[in-house]
Amino acid sequence: MGNGVKIGVLIVVLGAAGYFGWKNSRAISGGNDFDSPKTFWSCTECKADFEMSLGEVRKTREKLGAEMMTCPKCSKNAALSAAHCEKCGRNSPFVGHGEVPKNCMHCKAVMNPGRGK
Ligand SMILES: [Zn+2]
Ligand SMILES: [Zn+2]
């Protein structure tokens, strides 16, 4: 009886280790983060496109205290929240009060205002 319980505990521990190992490897490889939706950004300085998880955005905002996000390419605080174009895969900054632009600034495809937030 005692032996059976031990084996049961071992399986639970191994299962948990496998789960956390899987989670870590996904985080390192930069795969989709299920806990945090992705947001899209476009740098006004170097025109770089990048994406960030909402968790990262919150952390950076707390640090900077600003709406602009730090660009990973030129490291200036000049990146604006953007809409993601499904056609060309690039980002176009929101216009006015956070509205999705009518057309993609890269390929001119019509943007879907219901998406990309
Ligand atoms: Zn930049
Ligand atoms: Zn496009």
Account of the protein in words:
The protein is α+β, with helices and mostly antiparallel strands and 117 residues long. It has a domain at 37-117. 33% of the residues lie in helices and 21% in strands. It has helices at 2-29, 54-64; strands spanning 38-43, 49-53, 69-70, 77-84, 91-93. Strands 1, 2, 3, 4 and 5 form a five-stranded antiparallel β-sheet that branches. Residues 28-33 have low confidence and may be disordered. One zinc ion binds at residues 43, 45-46, 48, 71, 73-74, 76, 78.
Radius of gyration using CA atoms only: 20 Å
Order of helices and strands: HEEHEEE
Helix proportion range = 25-40%
**Uncertain residue ranges:** 28-33
- Helix/strand/pairing category: alpha+beta
Could you give a short description of this structure?
The protein is built from two helices and five strands, in the order αββαβββ. With 117 residues, it is of the alpha+beta class.
